[in-house]
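Reviewer comment 2.1 asked that we show a complete input and output for one of the modelled complexes. We chose the manganese (II) ion case, as it is the one discussed in the main text.
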Amino acid sequence: MQLSLVIPTYNECQNIPILIERIAKVLEGVEKEVIVVDDNSPDRTWEVARTLSARYPWLRVIRRMTDKGLSSAVLAGFEIAEGEILAVMDADLQHDEQALISFIREMESGADIVVGSRKVKGGGIVDWSPIRKFISGVATLLTKIALPQSVSDPMSGFFAVKKHVYVSNKNQINPRGFKILLEFLARAKHCKIEEVGYVFKGRVHGESKISSSVVFDLIIALYELSIGKVFPTQFIKYGIIGISGLFVATFVIYLCRMFTHLSEAYSIAISIEISILTNFFLNNFWTFRPKRLLGIWNILRGIITFHAICLGGALINQAIALKLLTFGVDVYIANAFGYFIAAIWNYIINVNITWKGRPEHG
Ligand code: GDD
Ligand code: MN
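Response of the prediction step:
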């Protein structure tokens, strides 16, 4: 089979019959399948699509009951696709189905990835607000900076990849990712990328599901696809919590001195213990949220291992700092360096012991 076209849908019952009709015309004679991936839309898009599949044998419909989200819907379609070219297109008639012919032609002449673009010759946008134009411009610029290979319209949801591009990357792709195209572009070092212009039309039926936090989501996504490979976002969160622990400890020492007659040694010991506990809970409910420990026994076990690991970290911190002192390094720098190495150690061991396992909660 030549082409598998994946169409993610959510509440597109009015658009899907028109789109399938248009695709049937444009792709007549192409050996193809069209896979509609619907997340159990309340407007019963899946049912409308299934009715259509009686007339069009190349139309497959997946109704997902538990998984949700645009990126994971696209990946679910790719996973069962049988074609050599895997394409994605929105259901809301904003993407121009005529461009699919150019997609196929580019693929035949050697492209590995083809991107439908609003910003090359033949491309354009109908009725876009200045705000949406501005956001799109910022997004394109950020993507150019962050990724080794970019395109004129990296936010496009209209593109195709050769099957081998999908197969060789599928295990690294983030199904909760924000833009599936970015995931491919970030890993496309040896791929030939082509762009095809198309005019992005206004939506007629239904409404957009894209949230207003796109730029924020994009920054996170680009971070994860670039520097995040060395320092994952999880590590940054862990670091932020680590720094917060210093503030907690300082505050506890202050309280001890103001309101008790405890010696400094005791105050420090108490402050260390309390900051370890706040770090544990903050990490559990923020840094490692998808894998967080729930239930009294799991949390107790987590607290104990976390303590043991922190103790190991403290010893590493001290050992490194003392060693550096013997080379005449300044005490603050020696300690800061020891602290940083200990943080990496704490993080790695905690990921593999305290919060090991696969993400379970959303
Ligand atoms: N299965 C599934 N699950 N489909 C979804 C979901 C979901 O959670 N959310 C959205 N969709 C489907 C919609 O039904 C539509 O077919 C397509 O995904 C795109 O959603 P829209 O809500 O129409 O997105 P948009 O028009 O705001 O954004 C488009 O333009 C952006 C660039 O400006 C999309 O093409 C984006 O991918 C693109 O980046
Ligand atoms: Mn749309």
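The longest strand covers residues 3-9. We note this here for comparison with the apo prediction described in Section 3.2.
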